[in-house]
Amino acid sequence: xxxxxxxxxxxxxxxxxxxxxxxxxxxxxxxxxxxxxxxxxxxxxxxxxxxxxxxxxxxxxxx
Length: 63
Hints:
By secondary structure, this protein is mainly α. The protein has helices at about 10-20, 35-40, 45-55. The longest helix has 12 residues, at about 45-55. It is globular and about 25 Å long.
């Protein structure tokens, strides 16, 4: 499975927040505004950095 097809390892609250918002893969997060993700309940700065780092490995990023 391509690592774009899964979410990076982040805490359970952040993972739940992403799933509740409809995001189930890293690919879906490419281009999403960072501020929008930061507003999700359970999404902290560490999880955001982890997501950004994972996207950067694929030459992608948040919006």
